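Continuing the series of single-chain predictions for the mutant panel. This is the parent chain; the variants come on the following pages.
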Amino acid sequence: MCGIVGLFLKDKTLEPELGAMLAQMLGVMNDRGPDSAGFAVYGAGQDGFIKATLRGPAGTDFEALSRKLKETTGEFVRIVPHDTHGVIAVPTDRWSSVRASIRGIAPELTVVGEGSRMELFKEVGLPSDVSKRFGLDKMTGTHGIGHTRMATESAVTTDGAHPFSTGIDQ
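Parent structure:
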């Protein structure tokens, strides 16, 4: 059994509270999916930029990756760490070369989401713990979705955690 929650804010004044509200909703689903959880938050984007969420093993040094990307691509890429994930934003026309550089520098990293506004996070553990690890309660935006998973036919891994991105900002 799994659980899905979602929130779409029509009142702009509530956008700073999106993460706190979504974290509370996700926490209520602890019993429906205690194996893993994840969420996607749609926040501010920047025209002409791709925002991507990278997932790596525990202890991934995103600051070192940023330095290596500067050496490789000649472009400074700021990576905002969130536990095992990091969020980057690069000019749209440079994304394919930066993505290829990431693959070469850190093949253990996975791009779990990309687009102009979406940030996607997922990990093994109780939904309330996963949302705390990534600081969901501090995130802002217009809408978000959360998923909890109780594995019934496959291993409990981050690779099996939901949500999955199916395309740009999806």
